[in-house]
Amino acid sequence: MGSVALAVTLAATLAPVPDPDPAPSAPPRVAPRDQHLLANGPQYVYDRAYARAGTAIVAFRGPTGRATVVFVVQGMPHSAWGRTFGVHVHRDRCGRTAASAGPHFSNPRAPRGARISEREIWLDVRVLPGGWGMSRTTTTYAMPDGANAHSVVLHARPTNRSTGDAGARLFCTNVDMSDLPSVG
After folding, report:
1. Which residue, of 16, 73, 130, 161, has the greatest Cβ tally within 10 A?
2. What is the CA radius of gyration of the chain?
3. What is the rounded distance in angstroms from the CA atom of residue 114 to the CA atom of residue 112?
4. Is 46 in a helix, a strand, or coil?
5. Nearest-angstrom CA–CA distance, 177 and 88
6. Nearest residue to 30 via CA among 41, 14, 45, 46
7. Under a CB-based contact definition with an 8 Å cutoff, are residues 36 and 183 in contact?
8. How many CB atoms lie within 10 A of CB 51?
9. 13 in the Ramachandran plot: left (φ > 0), alpha (ψ -120 to 50) or beta?
10. Residue 42: cis peptide before it, omega within 30 degrees of 0
11. What is the phi/psi pair of residue 32, to 5°?
């Protein structure tokens, strides 16, 4: 299964469904395509060791306005198997240099003193044998319309929970989350 199909399938199983008590044996229902955002990448690779990696990102806004983002990666090199990588939503689009994506997206409406993990969107992923991994997060806040959230970057190290740092940027996927579609 390609990364796109896998991401859509996984996101659909995580998305809210209208029936409150679906039968346990019923297959998951897939939200209509206009109810989620899908992006494939990466568009830019900054470390040649990751040149064969592929990503798929699915994002949508739930009934409460909170954003759910699913990140799927495949084709990671053998040296990455078993490792955890920091993955963050960044403000700007990917570009020729690793710095092009700018800083991490940060919720502009976050209350004063909110922890960094409650202001940003982190999707740290552990790479499994075979070179693939998946992560998912839902924001603790309603995603603002017009958010400066335009890319997802995979970093060299797991995210430092105190500072948000995750080391060098290895590759970047463009995904415009400024106006997320809603599910439900």
Report:
1. 73
2. 16
3. 6
4. coil
5. 13
6. 14
7. yes
8. 11
9. alpha
10. yes
11. -55, 150
Q: Which two tokens stand for residue 102?
A: 């700018």
Query: pLDDT tens digits, residue range 95-147?
Result: 999 999 999 999 999 988 999 999 999 999 999 999 999 999 999 999 998 99
User: In the numeric block, which tokens belong to residue 53?
Assistant: 């990696």
Full-model pTM? 0.83
Task: Give the pairing type, strands 44-45 and 169-174.
Answer: antiparallel
Q: Which residues of 71-93 are buried (b: 16+ CB within 10 A; e: fewer)?
A: bbbbebeeebeeebbbbbbbebb
Query: Exposed e or buried b for every residue in 27-39, given b needs 16+ CB within 10 A?
Result: eeeebeeebbbbb
CA quadruple 166, 169, 173, 174: dihedral positive or negative? Answer: positive
Q: What angle do CA 127, 1, 71 make, to 5 degrees?
A: 40
pLDDT for the residue 173: 97
Return the bridge partners of 67, or none: 61
What does DSSP say about strands 125-126 and 87-90: parallel, antiparallel, or unpaired?
unpaired
C-alpha 85/C-alpha 128 separation (Å) is: 12
